[in-house]
Amino acid sequence: MDGHDSEDPKQSPADMTVFVQNLLQQMQTRFQTMSDSIISKIDDMGGRINELEQSINDLRAEMGVESSPSPVAPAKPEEEESNKEGSA
């Protein structure tokens, strides 16, 4: 029961302004911290995706598969088209 409690119901507009400014500053600091954390996690995830992509490409190279579609796949439709044209 100090003198400050008796002033709470009659706070001055200046006191309220300071209170609101402090509250907004705290909120801004928390949002900035969360934003930085999210950006950091997104960057980390991007790095992991790049590593995964490189690992997949390395495995494909070891298996002898190129990054582009296999040349065998397009050759079959062309052979079928040749046969159709030749028989027509």
Number of strands: 0
What pattern of helices and strands is seen along the backbone? HHH
Helix share, percent: over 70%
| pLDDT < 50 stretches | 70-76
Report the β-strand fraction as a percent range. Answer: under 5%
Q: Give the C-alpha Rg.
A: 34 Å
Per DSSP, the total helix count is 3
Q: Class by helix and strand content? A: mainly alpha
- Overall mean confidence score, pLDDT: 79
- Compute the separation of the termini in Å: 105 Å
Largest sheet: none
Shape: rod-shaped
Write out key terms for the chains shown.
3 helices, mainly alpha, 88 residues
Give an account of the 3D structure.
The protein is mainly alpha-helical. Helix content is 82%, strand content 0%. The chain contains 3 helices and no strands. The longest helix has 51 residues, at 13-63. The N and C termini lie far apart (105 Å).
Provide a brief overview of the structure:
This protein has helices spanning 3-7, 13-63, 72-87. With 88 residues, it is an all-alpha fold. The longest helix is centred in the middle third of the chain and has 51 residues, at 13-63.
Draw up the topology in text.
Layout: H1 3-7, H2 13-63, H3 72-87
